[in-house]
Every structure is written in structure tokens, then in C-alpha cells.
Design brief:
With 379 residues, this protein is α/β, with parallel strands linked by helices. The protein has helices spanning 14-25, 57-70, 83-93, 104-109, 111-116, 139-146, 157-165, 210-222, 238-247, 262-270, 293-300, 313-316, 331-343, 345-362, 365-376, and strands spanning 2-5, 31-34, 42-43, 46-50, 98-102, 120-124, 151-154, 173-175, 196-201, 227-232, 254-257, 274-276, 305-308, 323-326.
Amino acid sequence: MLVVQPFWGRLSNRFLERHLEMLAERGALAAVAVLYPTPRRSWRGIPVVSLSDSASAAGRGRRLARALLRRIGLTPSWLGRRPEDGLRRLLEKRPVDAILCQYATTAAALWEPLRAARCDLFVHLHGYDTFAAMCPPGHQQRLRDMADRVLLICNSHCTDQQMSDWGIPADRMVVKYYGVEVPQELQRRGSADDEVAVLQLGRLVRFKGPERTLRAFELACEGGLRGRLVMIGDGPLRGECDGLIARSPWKDRIRRVGAVRWQEGQRLRSISDVYTQHNVRDPETGQVEAFGVAVVEAMACGMPVVGTRSGGIVETVIDGVTGLLVEPGDEEGQAAALLRLAADVGLRREMGAEGWRRARDHFSVERESAQLLEILGVE
């Protein structure tokens, strides 16, 4: 099995590493091809091949020169290779039985050598790559063209429906949820006398609604909430969120931290009482939360979730059982849900326990591994 992915080592994409681990543990991973430049050359003794020029200044210069010369119809060999050529050479040297391509945008960029490969092709969809406004022009049609040749692995029924709306046949898709690490034992949390620790963890982007969570937290504080909010993540809304925090009358109760590694995220989840996230549909791109890994990771740690009925969140959180869901845009409802959980430690523990059991039974790494290996035909 060859795995093709766009990048290596981003903090927010631990699921890519998990997929590599699942295949490596079965001895089924032959190599990893990375679309964009990476200095890494191996992982657990398995070759890692960069399909583009190096990330050095010389490499960037070659890419710029190549782009300029292509405009006038010249492609000198000394300017380095295109990613498509890199993949073609790799497949000539290392024939494989199957290729797993992470993200539809990666598959679209490498479609010519992928289509010519004499092996099974799988494309794992991850969310943003199913929204036309987030992808290169012609992406929607390219995905329809690929459907006859590949099996699309959808990360939720939300993604599956999006692909159906694009005209992808149902028999060319399969739904497989992400898996997360679920502790063997449920952690007991908080007492009635403690301040409630509220956590949000994720990229600061419009469809995750961090600015709405800040306003909801303010409303909850005005309503008598004894608690603090820790907001973890980075992204294009960082400036807007920092401005809201600076102007907030409750700014001494709010702490924003940039992107953190998974281990630090686990530590923060272990000392928090409630997880909250205000997902909406991005009014400009139409993007929604396709699955919500951070939400499921919070459930796995025994935290009740306050969220919205948006995208894939309704597939993971059971309203009234593992958390409380409100309509997208209802900041007052989010604040009321935070107040309700803050006032009832028994309800927090009950919903947290139900969330932990749901994560264990439906969203564990072990369950995802079994499903992924079955889809890929790995024994």
C-alpha cells in the first residue's frame, strides 16, 4: 500500500499519522508520498518521498522559475520535477497493489499518474475537500470524473450526502468515522463547589464559530456562571477573537492559547469540565463541520459537549444524552446550556459518562482501524 498525502506533521492532522500507524502495524505500508516539500526521508523505517522540490531557497527558486517558463511553453529538466512526475517515477520503482490518497484535492492534483496506476485506488475525504469554494476551480467535476476509478472514503454521513449532492454514485462511497484514543477508565470530574472549566479546541475559522463561543461565554457569565474559558487554536479569526477578548468585561476569565500538540490537548481535556463549540455554516464558503474530531476527543475524555446542530456534529453528539445541542447562531441557547451544566455536577458527570461510552463503542481507534483495513482489503 502506498499512502499519498499533501503534507507531513501538521499539528491538527493526527488522524493522518494514525492511518499510517494502522497500516504499518499490519506490515501493509510500502511507502509514503508527500505532495508538498518535506525534509523527512523515512518513518519507522518506511520510505517517505517528497514529490516536489525541496523546501530550501534553491528549491523555491526552481519552482518559481519553472512556473514562469511554463507560461511560454518551456520546461527545462534542470528546473526539477513536477509532483505528477515524482509520483510516476515512484510507482515505476515501487509497484504497489493499492494507493490510499488523503484528501480529494491531493488526488485531483495527481490524477494523471493515479489514473494510469495499475492498482486499486482509494481517496479519503476529510471535509474541506468536499466544498467547491475551498478547492481549485473544476474540483467538483474532477471528483465526478474520478468516481469511476476510485472508492471514496467519507468521514461522515454529512460528507457522504455532500458527495451525493455532487452526483457521486452511492456505490462509489463508503462511510468510516475517525477514531480517537479512548481512556480505559472514566475520569471523575469536578465538584459542586468548583469553578467550571470550559474548553474549546480547534482552528479559529468561521464554521467553528469561536467568536460566537466567546459571546455565549460572556452571556453565561452575565447569567451567573462561575467558570473560565480556555480557547485553544490558531487561524484566520485569531485577530477578531483577540479583539473580542480584549474588550470583554470578563476577559480575566478567558485565556486563548495557540495551536498545541495532541499530548497538550489531552492534558487540557483532563482538567476541563465542559467542552463547547459553536459550529455554523460558513456564509462565504458553505463549509460545515464534517465530523468534529475535537468534539469526539472531548467525549472520549468524559466531557459533556455543548454544541450546535450543524454538519456532522449531530452524528456524534446525542442531544440530552452526551451533551446539549442548540441551533446554529443561538448564542443565548449556548449560554443557557453552559449555565445548566455548570449548575448540575451530577448532569455533567452523567453526560460525560455517556459520551465516554459512546466514544468507546463507536469512535475508538481500534474500531476505525478495523473498518479502514477492511475497506482497503488489508488482512
